[in-house]
Amino acid sequence: MNDDSVAGATGLEGAGGRIPATLPSAETVMAYEKAVPGATERILNMVERTMEHHIRSVEDDRAHHRALARQGHVRGMWSLVFGFLVAAMAVVFGSTIAYLEEPVIGAVIAVGVPIVILAAFAIAQRARRSS
User: Fold this and answer.
1) 101-114 as b/e, with b when 16 or more CB fall inside 10 Å?
2) Would you give per-residue pLDDT tens digits along the chain (131 residues)?
3) Helices (H), the chain
4) What is the pLDDT of residue 19?
5) 10 Å Cβ neighbour count for 23?
6) Where are the domains of the chain?
7) Separation between Cα atoms, residue 59 and residue 81, nearest integer Å
8) Is residue 113 within 8 Å of residue 93, measured between CB atoms?
9) Residue 3 DSSP label
10) Kindly report the CA angle at 40 between 39 and 42, in degrees rounded to 5?
11) What is the number of other CB atoms lying within 10 angstroms of the CB of residue 97?
């Protein structure tokens, strides 16, 4: 282990695998303590505060990502409900037109709109998976 860094297995190490807090070598700490009594305690307190800040930052980041994922799920659910309602209305509207006036136009509306909505949903799912 390098004297210039402190590494641990806390699960909170950065991308490089090191905790973002460094301690000077033992000789340097001893020299600080001789020059300024109490320096070792202040150095350790500084490293502890840095670690606490890092842990809070990681926890806040994880909570933020969970909240964004939850918002995405809710948005997706409402989009699905809206798409279903539009498709159902198109089927009713197209069937009514087909029965009362124009069978071809009504059939195109009753069948075409739900197919277009399903195709858009499938394309969106494929795009989401590939990204």
Assistant:
1) eeeeebeebbeebb
2) 344 444 444 444 444 445 556 777 888 888 888 998 988 888 889 888 989 999 999 999 999 999 988 888 888 888 889 999 999 999 999 999 999 989 999 999 999 999 999 999 889 888 888 87
3) 26-35, 39-100, 103-130
4) 55
5) 15
6) 26-130
7) 33
8) no
9) T
10) 65
11) 18
Residue with the two structure tokens 């460094």: 22
What is the residue whose two structure tokens read 């124009």? 102
Q: Which amino acid is at 17?
A: G
The label of the residue with tokens 């159902």 reads 88
The half-sphere exposure of 58 on its side-chain side, counting CA atoms within 13 A, is 14
Sign, CA dihedral 31-32-38-40, equals negative
Please say whether the beta carbons of 25 and 59 come within 8 A: no
Three-state DSSP at 35 gives helix
Contact present, 63 and 44 (Cβ < 8 Å):
no
The pTM score is: 0.51
Contact between residue 21 and residue 50 where contact means Cβ atoms under 8 Å apart: yes
